Amino acid sequence: MQIRYEKPSREELHALVWSQPMTKLAERFHMSDVALKKICKKHNIPAPPRGYWRRHECGRPGRRAKLPKSLNAAPIVIRVREEIQAVNADFLSEEEQAQIEAELSPAMAISIAEKIERPHKITTITKHALKASQIDDYGAIKCNSEEAFYVRVAPESIDRVLRIVDALVKAIEKRGYTVQPGKPPPPNEYKPRYDHAKLIINGEIIRFSIEETIRRRPHRLT
Q1: Which tens digits make up the pLDDT trace of 139-174?
Q2: Residue 210: which of 130, 136, 134, 118 has the closest Cα?
């Protein structure tokens, strides 16, 4: 996902909304037509009324509304969020291009099972570590094991996170990648710091963790 910003003037945006249907123009900015209409309304830019483009197709175009003056001097900033799909093939080897094409096939999609069958070793380690963990001040438990990923979730999320871990690890091994365990903490350390497992993909180390956002609310006496 990448973020870019477009800063059209009021005149430019006015010309755009009268040049094509709002739904098509919204696709350019990777947003809904409702969100684009709100931007136009905020900057006092009139948009074509309902049925305008239908009449236009029938050879009966309506009158284009003029752009009124506006006291709103704030610049128009459209935040565009778009998926990064294209990769410059000039920088990829034939093997890398083949891997990308293989990942895009439906057969390589990663799905989370409703029930774990034959759990992976890392899934079992994660389960035992979470079960043995003490609840912290935020009501969460952690997976403290150098043989598993770092996981911090609420106790009621154990089943769900185990299904995610199991699906991920099996998908990694299906692709020929590996999971490398971390180093155990030094003995007799008061608060041991764990070096958790990490992914090894094409020789590169990629650290992975799952952490659930938990809000702590102060208890009020009643």
Answers
A1: 899 998 889 999 999 999 999 999 999 999 999 998
A2: 130
Would you state the structure tokens that stand for residue 146, as one six-digit string? 């150098």
Task: State residue 89 phi and psi, 5-degree precision.
Answer: -70, -15
Q: Do 125 and 166 contact (CB within 8 A), yes or no?
A: no
Q: Which long-range contacts (CB under 8 A, 24 or more apart) does 111-120 make?
A: 111/167, 112/163, 112/164, 112/167, 113/163, 113/166, 113/167, 114/163, 115/163, 116/162, 116/163, 116/166, 119/162, 119/166, 120/165, 120/166, 120/169, 120/170
As a whole number, mean pLDDT of residues 29-53 equals: 88
Instruction: Give the residue with greater pLDDT, 47 vs 79.
Output: 47
pTM of the model: 0.54
CB 146 within 8 A of CB 181: yes
Higher pLDDT, 123 or 76: 123
Quote the longest CA-to-CA distance of the chain.
Answer: 84
- Band of pLDDT at residue 108, cut at 50, 70 and 90: confident
Angle CA(76)–CA(46)–CA(26) in degrees, nearest 5?
60
**Domain ranges, ordered by start, for the chain:** 2-82, 114-211
Residues 6+ apart with CB under 8 A from 165: 120, 122, 123, 126, 148, 149, 151, 210
